[in-house]
């Protein structure tokens, strides 16, 4: 195996510092790289704004490769190799259907082989982390270039806004691949947007000066630091290892469910932290600019990974998913789900998309179990919401004022539990560990979401609900048949007119 950044660092000073602050060396290097993005973004914004795109590409390429080497040492060559292979393919065959197919197969295959060789039985902080981000970026370039060579009338408005005709050059491709704002954790940034940024077109003013990005960037960073403090102070109390202890096994059933719900919530805290820090870097650099709102205030939202307030106040899994990992979900919808429209079945498209997402994360069975459960949980969430909204008795019960607080607490707990239950497998990865936890709660989530609810929903509830709704529509149509289209509202006038109509008929 190639040497890592840790092995190439003389004296092991990073390892010493990591031990003193209570973390491992890979995590420390990762954090340093994330925060280093802020002074780099300021330098890029203030000192290179008026320079050529080539100068910016050189700076970004050099900095990105250095950051990658600092974290992954000579393993950086695998990232660079992937980027250059994609450049060659797009140069030779870019804009063709064959280039899209090759890009998809090569990039996904390259990632999966990397996982097979380098992955361990735990979460890995090695070069495959930025590689999985790069995989999506390279596939999107092939797709957008293909759309640029497709007749305009066949493109959606979104595709029209992202497509382009000229393939990237070698320096541009490396720069785009290694931009420090999204290199390590994302978000995804379309090449067309990246080009606009390099050309100095993403500005909130007409004078050509760099955008005033300090305040919005610091706001996002401030929120990220709150999550960072939670990661340091609270998250260590909710570890995956505790799920495998005898103490957890001997706990009550309700306590186990409560712990799993909190475990899931705090498990994703580190992802939220990194997304917010990365978003702050992108905002500060100016690449996140998306225009102005109705009040004329500049918006920097194109690199958002999460909407913190909406995420924290979500009361359903569907609402939580809509505000979480926004960049990846947008990419998945844009380049997988919507491209499967020809299948003619949205459920099949959703399942294929989620299986792609599982493979993108890795080869462990825990990822696939997580996303299969997520699919059925979201389906339950949508159907249950529809029932409580459209069935009068249930709707009246859910809107009762005296039950408002109870409803709030129950929905929040259920949302956390529905989120935490699949994440057990997402974190533990291996089935032997996953089974050890799920058996302690009697596989309650699998039994309900994969077995009981589909039977009740598609076999009993939904058919009766649809029949009731159909009967209601028929009754409404039947009643409307007795109404004569006139402006009178007096029953005697209506009856008189009906009598006249009957006489005419006779």
From TrEMBL:
It is an enzyme of class 2 (transferase). Belongs to the membrane-bound acyltransferase family. InterPro entries: LPLAT_7/PORCN-like (IPR049941), MBOAT_fam (IPR004299). Its EC number is 2.3.1.23, 2.3.1.n6. The chain crosses the membrane at residues 26-44, 56-72, 84-113, 220-244, 271-290, 347-365, 409-429, 441-462. The keyword Cell division does not apply. This is Lysophospholipid acyltransferase 5. GO terms for molecular function: 1-acylglycerophosphocholine O-acyltransferase activity; lysophospholipid acyltransferase activity. It is a multi-pass membrane protein. Pfam families: MBOAT. It comes from Strongylocentrotus purpuratus (Purple sea urchin). Pathway: Lipid metabolism; phospholipid metabolism; Phospholipid metabolism. GO terms for cellular component: endoplasmic reticulum; membrane. It is found in: Endoplasmic reticulum; Membrane. The keyword Isomerase does not apply. Keywords: Acyltransferase, Endoplasmic reticulum, Lipid biosynthesis, Lipid metabolism, Membrane, Phospholipid biosynthesis, Phospholipid metabolism, Transferase, Transmembrane, Transmembrane helix. GO terms for biological process: lipid modification; phosphatidylcholine biosynthetic process; phosphatidylethanolamine acyl-chain remodeling. It comes from the Eukaryota.
């Amino acid at each position: 195996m190639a040497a890592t950044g840790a092995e190439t660092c003389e004296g092991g000073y990073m390892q010493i510092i990591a031990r003193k602050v209570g973390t491992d060396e890979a995590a420390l290097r990762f954090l340093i790289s994330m925060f280093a993005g802020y002074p780099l973004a300021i330098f890029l914004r203030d000192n290179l704004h008026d320079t050529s795109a080539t100068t910016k590409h050189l700076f970004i390429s050099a900095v990105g490769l250095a950051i990658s080497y600092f974290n992954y040492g000579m393993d950086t060559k695998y990232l660079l190799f992937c980027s250059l292979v994609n450049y060659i393919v797009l140069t030779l065959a870019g804009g063709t259907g064959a280039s899209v197919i090759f890009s998809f197969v090569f990039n996904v295959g390259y990632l999966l082989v990397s996982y097979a060789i380098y992955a361990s039985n735990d979460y890995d902080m090695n070069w495959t982390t930025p590689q999985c981000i790069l995989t999506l970026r390279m596939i999107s370039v092939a797709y957008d270039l293909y759309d640029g060579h497709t007749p305009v009338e066949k493109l959606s408005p979104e595709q029209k806004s992202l497509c382009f005709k000229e393939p990237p050059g070698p320096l541009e491709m490396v720069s785009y691949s290694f931009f420090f704002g999204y290199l390590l954790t994302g978000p995804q940034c379309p090449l067309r947007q990246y080009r606009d940024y390099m050309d100095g077109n993403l500005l909130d003013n007409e004078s050509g000066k760099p955008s005033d990005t300090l305040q919005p960037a610091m706001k996002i960073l401030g929120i990220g630091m709150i999550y960072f403090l939670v990661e340091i102070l609270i998250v260590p109390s909710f570890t995956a290892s505790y799920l495998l202890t005898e103490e957890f096994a001997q706990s009550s059933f309700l306590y186990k469910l409560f712990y799993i719900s909190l475990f899931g919530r705090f498990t994703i805290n580190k992802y939220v932290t990194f997304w917010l820090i990365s978003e702050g870097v992108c905002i500060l650099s100016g690449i996140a600019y998306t225009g102005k709102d109705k009040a004329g205030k500049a918006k920097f939202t194109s690199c958002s990974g999460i909407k913190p307030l909406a995420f924290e106040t979500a009361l359903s899994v569907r609402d939580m998913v809509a505000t979480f990992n926004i960049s990846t979900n947008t990419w998945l919808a844009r380049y997988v789900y919507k491209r499967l429209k020809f299948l003619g079945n949205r459920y099949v498209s959703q399942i294929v998309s989620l299986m792609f997402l599982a493979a993108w994360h890795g080869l462990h069975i825990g990822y696939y179990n997580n996303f299969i459960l997520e699919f059925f949980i979201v389906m339950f969430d949508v159907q249950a919401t529809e029932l409580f909204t459209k069935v009068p008795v249930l709707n009246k019960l859910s809107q009762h004022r005296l039950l408002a607080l109870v409803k709030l607490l129950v929905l929040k707990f259920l949302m956390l539990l529905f989120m935490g239950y699949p994440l057990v497998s997402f974190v533990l990865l291996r089935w032997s560990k996953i089974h050890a936890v799920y058996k302690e709660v009697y596989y309650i989530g699998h039994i309900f979401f994969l077995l009981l609810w589909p039977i009740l929903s598609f076999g009993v509830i939904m058919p009766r609900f649809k029949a009731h709704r159909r009967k209601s529509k028929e009754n409404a149509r039947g009643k409307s048949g007795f109404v004569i289209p006139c402006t009178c509202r007096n029953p005697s006038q209506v009856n008189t007119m009906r009598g006249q109509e009957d006489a005419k008929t006779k």
